[in-house]
């Protein structure tokens, strides 16, 4: 950024040179103290804004990624599924094919969800079992595996394997290769019991959801719940971009009502936000908090820079008068102080970016800050950095600083050479 200031000042080398010379000759004066305070304020504000944005984007990225993994971008289910366990619908290959052909859709796969109890020895806990088949995109699940492997859902014969979270396995005191019992109660089929072998363990950091969900073969889950034929709970629709959720959901909804070849009735394409309104409201609240922090830090930065600019001008009244007496225009003299403000900002920005970058890197590598998953959903404070927003933050802050500096630098025009003779150069 220092090079940026030099390039910007090429056509005004005299003003830039004077700006640098005055900065170097502040010595231990009160001006120098104020300049240090302004530099520290720039560094502190930028460091805080960088950490704030990194944490906010980290929360959004991790929670979005995990919610997508657990429940897909869009779930096509029976309409009652938003309020309670959805009633089963008949698997319809044509519907799956039509949805998969929509623009932006990455994959479509049927699933079955059942709520029951998991039991191992004397340990019992509530568990939601999700059944998937060979067409299901398990890329996200594979990335969260910590031990073992996914259930063999593509095998010709049913294997009765189950994928548990590490949290659930610890509570049930089981490991890979052990067996657990799944208990299921239905008003239609009554109480049912089935045995599953633990094929692997996963961990996402969303402790509440980890403890509630397990994965198994769709055929095994259908047998456990005693559904006839090819009944399913719905379809998981994964997209290439999460931002397309609303558009694709509307396209699916229109298809359900206009395509006479599709026989599925009373189905609803539910986006992530529709299914998790509390989580998305929580993220929106964090967005407001991040905005408030950035506004406060920007206000502190600009206030200190404006005060520094006024001190710079008043401290150099004698120099301003001498330059005016020699024919230099007020606009050129104002540029001297604007360049000096830019140099001051760059010094603080270098430190601010360095400190902010180190703090973010430490959290990303060693996770020194832990979270209570019951309140924050995640067990570790997440951070996420993008070169785009990092550069934009620095550029926007520099532009705002220079823009604010224009007003106090206007004091230069009000200084007359004959009145400045009593001041030192």
Report on the structure:
- With 425 residues, this protein is an alpha+beta fold.
- The protein folds into 2 domains: 2-66 and 279-419, no CATH class; 72-275, no CATH class.
- 52% of the residues lie in helices and 19% in strands.
- The protein contains 15 helices and 12 strands.
- The strands form 2 sheets. It has a 6-stranded mixed β-barrel. Strands 2-10 form a two-stranded antiparallel ribbon.
- Helix 3 packs across helix 13.
- The longest helix is centred in the N-terminal third of the chain and has 42 residues, at 30-71.
- The chain starts with a helix and ends in a 16-residue tail after the last helix.
- The model is unreliable at 7-12 (pLDDT under 50).
N-to-C series of helices and strands: HHHEEHEEHEEHEEHEHEEHEHHHHHH
List low-confidence stretches: 7-12
Structural classification: alpha+beta
Biggest sheet record:
6 strands, mixed, barrel
N-to-C CA distance: 30 Å
The figure for the number of domains is: 2
Count of helix runs: 15
Inertia-based shape: elongated
Oligomeric state of shown chains: single chain
Rounded mean pLDDT score? 87
- Beta strand %: 15-25%
Rg, Å, rounded: 31 Å
Instruction: Report strand order across the widest sheet.
Output: 3-4-9-6-8-7
């Amino acid at each position: 950024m220092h090079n940026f200031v030099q390039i910007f000042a090429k056509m005004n080398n005299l003003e830039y040179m004077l700006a640098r010379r005055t900065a170097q000759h502040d010595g231990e004066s009160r001006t120098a103290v104020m300049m240090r305070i302004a530099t520290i304020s720039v560094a502190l504000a930028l460091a805080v804004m960088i950490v704030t944005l990194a944490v906010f984007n980290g929360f959004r990225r991790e929670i979005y990624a995990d919610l997508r993994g657990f429940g897909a971008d869009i779930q096509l289910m029976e309409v009652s599924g938003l309020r309670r366990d959805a009633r089963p619908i008949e698997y319809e290959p044509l519907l799956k094919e039509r949805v998969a052909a929509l623009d932006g859709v990455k994959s479509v796969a049927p699933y079955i969800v059942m709520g029951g109890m998991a039991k191992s020895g004397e340990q019992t806990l509530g568990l939601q079992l999700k059944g998937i088949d060979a067409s299901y995109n398990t890329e996200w699940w594979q990335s969260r595996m910590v031990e073992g492997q996914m259930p063999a859902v593509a095998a010709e014969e049913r294997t009765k394997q189950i994928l548990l979270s590490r949290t659930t396995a610890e509570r049930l005191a089981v490991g890979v290769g052990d067996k657990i019992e799944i208990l299921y109660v239905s008003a239609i089929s009554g109480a049912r019991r089935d045995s599953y072998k633990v094929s692997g363990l996963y961990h996402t950091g969303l402790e509440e959801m980890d403890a509630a969900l397990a994965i198994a073969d769709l055929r095994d889950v259908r047998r456990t719940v005693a559904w006839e034929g090819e009944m399913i709970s719905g379809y998981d629709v994964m997209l290439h971009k999460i931002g397309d959720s609303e558009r694709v959901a509307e396209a699916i909804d229109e298809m359900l009502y206009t395509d006479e070849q599709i026989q599925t009735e009373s189905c609803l394409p539910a986006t992530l936000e529709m299914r998790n309104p509390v989580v998305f409201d929580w993220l929106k609240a964090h967005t407001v908090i991040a905005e408030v922090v950035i506004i406060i830090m920007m206000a502190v930065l600009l206030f200190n820079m404006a005060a520094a600019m006024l001190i710079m001008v008043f401290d150099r009244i004698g120099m301003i008068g001498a330059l005016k007496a020699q024919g230099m225009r007020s606009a050129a003299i104002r540029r001297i102080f604007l360049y000096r403000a830019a140099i001051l900002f760059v010094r603080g920005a270098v430190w601010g970016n360095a400190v902010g970058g180190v703090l973010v890197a430490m959290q990303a590598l060693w996770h020194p800050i832990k979270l209570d998953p019951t309140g924050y959903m995640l067990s570790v404070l997440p951070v996420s950095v993008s070169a785009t927003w990092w550069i934009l933050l620095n550029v926007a802050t520099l532009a705002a600083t220079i823009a604010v500096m224009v007003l106090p630098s206007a004091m230069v025009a009000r200084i007359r050479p004959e009145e400045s003779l009593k001041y030192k150069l």
